[in-house]
Structures are given as C-alpha cells and as structure tokens.
Amino acid sequence: MSTCALPITVLLIFTCGTTALSAETLDDVLRASKVPVQQFSTSDLTGKITSYAVSKDGPFLLAYFVDNGSGVLQPPLRIIRYDRATDSLRRTDLRNISALFQSELLMNCLESVVDIREYRDTIYIGTHSNPSAGCVIVLSLGLEFKAALSGRLVGFIGADYAILRRSEIHFMSVHPLHLAVFDVRQNQATEIYPYTGDLQRRQFSRLIEPLISKKWCLEIAAQCDSGNFDTDLLGKVTVNETAYLFAFQAQFNVSGFGPAVEKQIPTRTVTYIFRERNGRWEHRQFDAQQLQRLIGKTSLEELVTKSPGLAFPRENATRKP
C-alpha cells in the first residue's frame, strides 16, 4: 500500500496525491544557490524534482519530491541543509508523516511543499493539502524529526514557541479560526483559541441563534451552529518576544447562516491578546470601543511592542524564568 493511503473518511477531506509542477533538476537548484554537489550521485543530480521549496535566509534548506513522471507526489520528502559557515551538508528522507486533524482524524503531511525555514535552531517545513489545510513538519538542525502539526505558521515567540493557525475542513459552510501554540522545548502543542468563556463570541452567538432558519439550513446542508461561525484572522499576528506576548484581531461574520441572517448582523472585530505566565496562557479580549479606550491614538502594534502591560493592568509582575 502506498504511504499516501489514508482512511476513507479522511480522503473525503484531503487529496492525498498532488499534481506535480513543472520540475527542475536537483543539480539546477543546488548550483543556483552555490551549494557543492560532490556528495550527490549523478542520478540524484540529473533527476527532476517537484513541489519543492528553498529557504530564503540563513543556511541553505531544500525540501523536495523526486518527479517520477506519474503526476502524483510519492514519498519520501527529501530534505537538504547546507551550512556555508561550516561547509557542512546534511540530508534526510521523511516517510509516513501525519498529523492529528480535528479529534482523532489523521491527515497526510507529505504533500506539496510551500515553504521551509530555519528559526532559532529549529527547522519548519510547511506543506499544503488544500486551500484550508496543511501541515508544519518540525525538525532539529540535525534534521531529526520532532513533530508534525496540522495547520500553518503565523508567528514565533523567540526560540520557545511557534504560533499556528489550525487546518480547517475546506468544504464546510463555516470556517472558524483555531489557533495553537507549539512549545518547541516540550515538543507539544496547546490549543488556545477559541477558549471557553469568551464573552465576545457568546454575545455574537446570541445574535445569530434566533435568526437561524432550519428550513434554509436543511436545504443547503449547512451546519447552522450559532456557536461555530466564520472567523477571519485580520492582518498579522503581532509579537513581543521579551514579554512572551502576542496579539491578533479576529473578524466574526455570519456567512454560512443564510441571506436573512447576513442582512441583519454586521461583522464584528475583536482584539485578543495572549501572554505566557509560568507555563499558562492568559488572555484578554477587546471589542472595537474597548480597544480604542485602551490604546487611544496609538496602534495595536505599539501597544504590544512598547506597552504590553496595559492589557494586563493588575498582573504586571516580572515573568518568572
């Protein structure tokens, strides 16, 4: 059985095989980046590669599949790291890499590579399954496998944490925002958004509930759960590495609940600020008016980078190591 084989329930969500892109040879890519090729065989160098990504900064990194001419990606996913400062080259092949997606479902992570980067002594490889789903494969500098996470990277907090937007089921009536923080040292992810007791989400849900048309929901096969609505991530995640704090803005909307609901309920933007304190993630939430009162004429970025304590006025003690 191919390593791309997945349970049928997952195949309904994700396409395992990815159509190959037009390929270059490995030799072309390595020589273009001035990477020595002496350690590669002639067959490796002359073979075409596809669905690959090259690092833009730091040590040279390449993640790629060999193009076998079938038009479908086949494992392994091959990784190369070349450190120009030490003239050292490492290679590894990745097989059978999957990540948990929504409860117990597994998704295949060996799909088309969209990016590869090295950040604070950790390597992150982003792969793409469909417009709403993908994986982040985490490796050490020695190319040892550490973790596979469902989603895509949206930020870093120093060497300690990576912030991820979780994958979604693409063919659903709503696409809610889910964020997690990956603890690099502990090698584990913590789901942080949405969280229980979010007053802003509860208020928005109460607006939706009485307007839902069960008839429309049945006809369209929409989920129509007032507590599970579209949430878009507006702009970028803003980070203060020193304070172990980050912020983002989420826009709630009622797309997926029918025209009648969409006419009556406008979108709502909520600002969330998270801070790590002694192993726990604290959070604050602000609607547009609350945020305006908090920051005045400054920006959210200035609040996060210059005055992070304003969001946590009663708990501004120095962070414990």
Any overview of this molecule?
By secondary structure, the chain is α+β, with helices and mostly antiparallel strands. Helix content is 17%, strand content 40%. It has 8 helices and 19 strands. The chain has helices at 8-11, 26-32, 42-46, 199-208, 214-220, 259-264, 288-295, 300-306; strands spanning 24-25, 48-54, 60-66, 77-83, 88-94, 98-101, 105-108, 112-119, 122-130, 133-140, 145-150, 152-157, 161-165, 179-183, 188-193, 230-240, 245-253, 268-277, 280-286. It has a 5-stranded antiparallel beta sheet. It is globular and about 65 Å long. The protein starts with 7 loop residues before the first helix and ends in a 15-residue tail after the last helix. 31% of the residues are buried. Residues 1-22 and 316-321 have low confidence and may be disordered.
List the helices and strands and how they pair.
Elements (H helix, E strand, L loop, with lengths): L7 H4 L12 E2 H7 L9 H5 L1 E7 L5 E7 L10 E7 L4 E7 L3 E4 L3 E4 L3 E8 L2 E9 L2 E8 L4 E6 L1 E6 L3 E5 L13 E5 L4 E6 L5 H10 L5 H7 L9 E11 L4 E9 L5 H6 L3 E10 L2 E7 L1 H8 L4 H7 L15
Antiparallel strand pairs: 1-2, 2-3, 3-4, 4-5, 6-7, 8-9, 9-10, 10-11, 12-13, 13-14, 14-15, 16-17, 17-18, 18-19
